[in-house]
Each structure stands twice: as C-alpha cells, then as structure tokens.
C-alpha cells in the first residue's frame, strides 16, 4: 500500500463526499472482463447504424457517479481518463444537474439562438459570470464556438484576417473580391499557420493541417501546405538531464526561427499546446515557451495557445500556460473539454473582424454549454479545486515514482508539479495494451496517447483515496503480468 508522506487532511480540505454519497469505495466488478456481454451486444447493435470502431465499452451514464463510470453490465470503474479529459466535476454532479434544471437552461436549449444574429438578452451576463471570469490574464474578450477543433479553426481565421487587415490598410479591392470566389490569391490568403511535430489541434480541415500526431488522422484528407517546427524531446528525470534538455530546447528554438525567416509564405500565427496531449504527452520547459513567445513577437506573428485539453485546472493552474511566466500574454487561447463549452479568448480588439458575417456560423457556440461552464467555474473557485488538484497531483506523482522504480516496463514519468496531468511511457505498444486492459479488468479506466504513452486525465474531484485505489491496481497489474 502506498502512503502519503504527511497527513493528507492537512494538504486538501476538499471532500467529494458532499457530492457523491453513493460513490463506491472501490471499483465494482460484475463481469470477468470488460467489455462485458451486454456492452458487446449493445455495441454490435449500435454499429449497425453508427461508426463505433473506437468504442472502449458502452457506458451507463445514469448509474455513473463521481469518479466512477458505469458500463452497461453494471461494472463501476474508477475513471482516470474521463471522456478524454472532458469531465471536470465527476459524473452526475449535483451542482451541474441543478444548473441543467434551471429555467435559464431550458430556455437556452429549446430556443437555441443563432447567437451572431439573435443573441439572447442574458448572454453577456452568462459569459461574464463564467467563461470570461475564468479568462487567462491579459484577455477580456471571447469568441464562443462548437468544439475544440472549431475553436482552433476560428482562431486561425482571426489570425489571417488580422494579419491581412494590417497589410491592406483600407477597403477590399475588386481583385480580392473576384479572385477569392475562384479560391485564388490575392483574395484567398496564401499565409500559413505554423504548428509543431507531434501536435494535435483537431480534425477539421484547417485544424487537421496543423495536426501532426498520427497519420491515421490525416490520411485521404486534403491538407494546406503549412510548416511544422520541431518540438523538444526531453529526457527524464528532468533534474538529471538539465544540461541536455536545455541544449535540445535551444536547438528547437533556433530551428523555429530559421523556419520563420526562410518561409516563402508569411506565417500568420504559431499554434502550440502546453503539453502535446494526443501526440504522447510531450512536455517542454518554461524556457522553451518563453522563447517561442519572444520569437513570435520579434517577427510579428500571433501566438495561439491551444488549451483545449490542458485548460481548466488539471495542471495545478487554471490555465497551463500560466506555468510559463510569460512577459506578455499569448494573443489567443483556445479552450473546450473540461469547460463543456468551446471558443477562444483574446485581448486585442483588432482580432475581431470589422465586418459582420466573417467570423460566423449558425450557432456561434451554445448558451446551454456556457451555463454549464459558469456552474463549473463557480464550483472550481468555491471549492479551491485548482489547488487541491495540484496537491493530489504531487501525491499521485510520488506514488507513480515508486511503481516506475520497481519495473523496466515503464520509463519517462513526466508531469511533476503539473497537477494530475501525468504520463509515462511503456516499453512497447503491446505492454501498454496489456497494462490498460489489465487495469480495466480490475476496475480502472485509463487511456493512452502517442505510440507507447499512458496518460492520466481524472476529474478535479480526484482525491487521495482515489489515487490510492488507482496506484494499488496499477502496481498489481504491472508486477503480476
């Protein structure tokens, strides 16, 4: 049994029992393996009408509670994957249910407004009390969208329109207006967005052109010929490889500047994740990100920080880029997942186009999701969940260090002092598959990323008692297989 080094009640005052009295004290296993027979049958039936090729198991969300996800067979698994990092406050959280049952929510759902044309009378209040109250430092404006991919796509559009407006310094020319209808320059932009190797920014056309994590995401889809730059490949433990990692990051920054200076097309923006989540949970230091910011400012390039997965408290800061201690904020920060809403923040009013219908679609976000985001934000603040997540992450990381030291199956444990945003590599993809399935069969649901990595993405209500269950099951699976 893994133990904390000091009494835990002194570390964290939050207790999830006030929400989830029905949360199991341990995983509940009703079938010998997962997925069970009912889940398999339901998934087979679903597959007749829906693409279910990526299904882990069929869930029963009516019976899921807190940090535990229930499957269709009645198994209740401790969930440290949480809908790919998208559940902030546990399953069936009463605070969110209360918000969902409000008259305000009912009106937003049944009268879903086309926000750009017919915004509802209380949308400003909803934003100011929730999403805008959580805005990263230096940002006081927001564009709401439909998903993380859409958040990035609209941020890219904002970047292109901003850069062209600086060059144009006037009205659109007739040549621009006619050529764009043929998808040609000068009306159609020849500017580019730069992303990094192993990055993931979504699966729509523009966002997919900046995604570099797995070939299967991109095959058969037309792509923009946009540049990529190297992302540092750090060695772990970090304190043993400080000199080597600094050299690696300096070389990546030199290559980034070379790409910028030698690009045949103007780079409108650089987009970067604080942690390359889908690409393998790849980290870099504050030094690297500070360097990226300095280069973007030096060359008149916008910096977009993609916090779709890292945002909303999981890293021990509300926004992961706050760990960087930048001299000036990013130009835009995109978000989704744990906020149950999506969009991007910005501060410069010139990033909002001057003409209507340029940044536009029917919905332009969803007030019902913004209401949920408001409830999520208020609960995070009132229960001090960012700080508690930071402390749980420290405890969890120390426990994982103990396990990693006992086996040659795991390497490159990373995410120290980064909340519960923790990952490690397995010695092979087969080992990873066996560990993930072994944990699932013992009552823990977790997921991988990259080629051989396992990543943790628990809720912000994940406590020491949950960490102990997880660590003991992982250790049992690792040492017994």
From TrEMBL:
One of its GO terms (cellular component) is mitochondrion. Its cofactor is pyridoxal 5'-phosphate. Transmembrane segments: none annotated. One of its GO terms (molecular function) is 4-aminobutyrate:2-oxoglutarate transaminase activity. It comes from the Eukaryota. It catalyses: 4-aminobutanoate + 2-oxoglutarate = succinate semialdehyde + L-glutamate. GO terms for biological process: gamma-aminobutyric acid catabolic process. SUPFAM superfamilies: PLP-dependent transferases. Homodimer and homotetramer. Belongs to the class-III pyridoxal-phosphate-dependent aminotransferase family. This is 4-aminobutyrate aminotransferase. It comes from Candida oxycetoniae.
């Amino acid at each position: 049994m893994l133990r904390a080094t000091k009494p835990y009640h002194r570390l964290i005052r939050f207790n999830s029992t006030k929400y989830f009295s029905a949360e199991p004290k341990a995983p509940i296993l009703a079938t010998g393996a997962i997925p069970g027979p009912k889940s398999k049958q339901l998934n087979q039936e679903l597959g007749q009408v829906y693409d279910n090729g990526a299904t882990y198991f069929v869930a029963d969300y009516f019976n899921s509670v807190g940090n535990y996800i229930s499957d269709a067979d009645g198994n209740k698994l401790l969930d440290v994957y949480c809908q790919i990092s998208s559940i902030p406050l546990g399953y069936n959280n009463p605070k969110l249910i209360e918000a969902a049952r409000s008259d305000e929510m009912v009106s937003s759902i049944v009268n879903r407004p086309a926000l750009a044309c017919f915004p509802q009378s209380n949308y400003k209040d909803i934003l100011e009390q929730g999403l805008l109250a959580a805005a990263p430092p230096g940002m006081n404006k927001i564009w709401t969208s439909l998903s993380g991919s859409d958040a990035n796509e609209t941020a890219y559009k904002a970047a292109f329109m901003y850069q062209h407006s600086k060059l144009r310094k006037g009205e659109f020319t007739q040549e621009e207006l006619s050529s764009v209808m043929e998808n040609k320059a000068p009306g159609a932009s020849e500017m580019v967005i730069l992303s990094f190797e192993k990055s993931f920014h979504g699966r729509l056309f523009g966002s997919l052109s900046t995604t570099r994590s797995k070939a299967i995401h991109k095959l058969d889809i037309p792509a923009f010929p946009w540049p990529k730059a190297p992302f540092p490949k750090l060695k772990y433990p970090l304190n043993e490889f400080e000199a080597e990692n600094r050299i690696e990051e300096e070389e990546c920054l030199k290559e980034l500047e070379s790409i910028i200076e030698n690009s045949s097309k103007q780079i409108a923006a650089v987009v970067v994740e604080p942690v390359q989540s889908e690409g393998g949970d790849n980290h870099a230091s504050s030094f690297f990100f500070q360097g990226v910011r300095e280069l973007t400012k030096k060359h008149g390039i916008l910096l977009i920080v993609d916090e779709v997965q890292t945002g909303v408290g999981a890293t021990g800061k509300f926004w992961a880029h706050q760990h960087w201690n930048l001299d000036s904020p990013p130009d835009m920060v995109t978000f989704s997942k744990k906020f149950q809403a999506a969009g991007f923040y910005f501060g410069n009013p010139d990033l909002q186009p001057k003409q209507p219908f340029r940044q536009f679609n029917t919905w332009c976000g969803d007030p019902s999701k913004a209401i949920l985001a408001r409830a999520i934000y208020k609960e995070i603040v009132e229960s001090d969940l960012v700080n508690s997540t930071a402390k749980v992450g420290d405890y969890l990381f120390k426990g994982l260090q103990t396990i990693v030291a006992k086996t040659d199956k795991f390497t490159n444990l990373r995410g120290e002092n980064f909340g519960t945003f923790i990952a490690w590599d397995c010695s092979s993809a087969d080992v990873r598959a066996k560990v993930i399935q072994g944990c699932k069969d013992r009552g823990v649901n977790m997921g991988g990323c990259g080629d051989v990595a396992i990543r943790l993405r628990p809720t912000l209500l994940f406590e020491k008692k949950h960490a102990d269950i997880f660590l003991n099951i992982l250790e049992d699976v690792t040492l017994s297989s």
